[in-house]
Each structure stands twice: as structure tokens, then as C-alpha cells.
Amino acid sequence: MVDEENDVALSARARAGSLLNKLERIYLGVIRAIALVAATLLVVYAAWLAISGVYKASLDVETVKEVPASVSPEEVTKIDTTRPANSDAAENSDPFADEKRYYADFTKRYLALFSSKFEAFKRPEDKRLDAEAFDARYVNSSERLESIRDGSLDYAVDKADLESWLDTLTTVASSKSTVDRLKAYQSAKMTKVSRTIKGTREQRYCSYYAYYFDECLTYDTRTVPFTRTVDETKLPDGVMSHTDLLGAYQDRYFDLLLERRRANAGSANMQRAEIAADNQDGSTRLWMAVRVVGVFVVLMFLFLLIALERHQRRISASLRADSAETAA
């Protein structure tokens, strides 16, 4: 009876041990599978970090070039003819002999284009612009040379801008909108308008009059207001003279050019900043890849330990089976 009870107890312990061994094998198998999946994902992630990191770190901000600004002839003709013309010449320049010769030659070519395309539509009372007056109004060579001398103007950039402007104006001068505006000016009838001018003037007066002598002994001055009406003639609204039209075109061209040059410079600076940020991010990714590889090595070590444990258990089970057979 006692032997039967012992056999039952031994059988129960054997079944429990076998169940535990099966659970342990399943558990170790699950851990092994998880380790393999995690290790594979880490390898892929580390490879992606390394590749993207190397790419971003290899980007060079010097490869970003500022896009050249340009203005089309159609954009130059889009001016507001109702606003007062701004005839102030641009202030730019450089001081060497070559630069002086260039500005003189440019003014000559610019004046020739103006004479053939704009001055042909002047009114009888308009004075013809000579080379000196034309230079002072539209080119201002002397101030350009001074600006180059003090370093505030880049001659190469200014030269390229002027040549681009002359090429654009050649197209603009022959456009229908320009010809229509010049013809409208040539045939326009001047209208008389009265304008009131307000101001102040100095007036001399007697500050001390001696009645005993019946004469003024001391004189002084004072500021007094005045108004006067001036009659003048003007062009109809929307009509500009040939000289003002050229000035308006020139102002618009260089205003648009400067605006776009600033926009292009801002865009280039933004791209350089993005590349610099990518360089930093690339370095961070490379370090992250190194860390991920470290985690991968740890997981592989864990996987190795699990494999060794499973191997040890198989060896132990084999030895126990051999011992049991020998004992039998």
C-alpha cells in the first residue's frame, strides 16, 4: 500500500516536472523568437540611421547657390502712371579707369536707345537731353564711381545689372504698351490748372518809432505767412512724359530686381540653415546607430545565453537517460 502511494507521488512529480520543462521550453522559445525579431529590427534601424546620418552629415552648405534675380520686360511696363515720377538717379559706383570707360560707354548706348525709342515722341516744347544731362538723371556715373571707391557698390554686380537692364529696356521700348503711352503723351493736350502755394517770408518792420522826431529809429524782421495762386499747365491724368516714363521703368526694374534678390538671398540662407541642421541631425543619427548596435550586441548575447541554456538542458537530459539505462 505504501509502495503504491510512493509510486503515485513519484508519478505526479514526474508529470509536474515534465509540464514545467515543456513550459520552460515554450518560454525560452518565445524569448528566442522575440530576441531574433528585435535584433533584426535593430539591425534595419541601425542601417537606416547610419545611411541617413552619413547622407545628412555629408551635405555641404556651400553647395547652396543664390538664384540670380531677373525682371521680365512685361513686368517693367506694369507701372502706375498716375503717381508722380521719381527721377532721382540711383547711387552706385567704382573708381578705376576701366570702370570709368565702361560707365561712359554704357551711358552712350543708353542715350542712343532713349533717343531712338523715347525721344522720338517728345513734344515741340521739350528740350533734348544731352549726354551730361542724361547721365545725371538716369545713370549718375560719378556717384557710382564714388560708391565703388568707398566699397558700398560691387562693380561686377552693378555692371551685370546695367547690362541686363539695357537688354530688358530694348524689348520694353518696342512693346505696344510703351508705344501707346509715348503716343498718348505726344498727342496729349495740356490743361491749365491753378495751384495755391502757401509759405512764409521775412518782413521788415519798425520795431521802435520815435514820435518826437517823427521817424523810425529801430527796424527788425519777422516771419509772416503768405499765399499765392499759380497758374500752370499739366498733362492729363495717366499720361507721362517720355523722360518720366523712362525713369518710371528704370525705377520699377531695379525695385523688382532688389526685391527678388533679397528674396533669393533669404531662400538661400534658409536652405543653408536647413543643411546645417541636417548636418547636426546626421551626427546625432550616427551616434544613435552606434547605440542601437550596442543594444543589438546585448540582445545577441542574451540570445546566446538562451541557446547555451537550451543546449545544456539537452545534454543533462541525455546524461540522465544514459544513467537510467545503465541502472536498469
Describe the structure.
66% of the residues lie in helices and 12% in strands. A two-stranded antiparallel sheet has the order 1-2. The model is unreliable at 85-95 (pLDDT under 50). It is elongated. The protein contains eight helices and two strands. It has three domains: 12-62 and 279-327; 73-189 and 236-276, no CATH class; 191-234, no CATH class. With 328 residues, the chain is of the alpha+beta class. Helix 3 (97-117) packs across helix 4 (131-139). Residues 73-93 are annotated as: Disordered. Keywords: Membrane, Transmembrane, Transmembrane helix. The chain crosses the membrane at residues 26-51, 286-308.
Give the helix/strand layout:
Elements: H1 2-58, H2 73-76, H3 97-117, H4 131-139, H5 141-149, H6 155-173, H7 176-187, E1 191-210, E2 215-234, H8 242-327
Antiparallel strand pairs: 1-2
Transmembrane segments: 26-51, 286-308
Region (Disordered): 73-93
Keywords: Membrane, Transmembrane, Transmembrane helix
Structure, briefly:
By secondary structure, this protein is α+β, with helices and mostly antiparallel strands. It has 8 helices and 2 strands.
Largest sheet: 2 strands, antiparallel
Structural class: alpha+beta
Q: In what range is the share of β-strand residues?
A: 5-15%
Total DSSP E strands = 2
Strand order of the largest sheet: 1-2
Keywords: Membrane, Transmembrane, Transmembrane helix
Region (Disordered): 73-93
Transmembrane segments: 26-51, 286-308
Keyword list:
2 strands; alpha+beta; two-stranded antiparallel ribbon; 66% helix; 328 residues
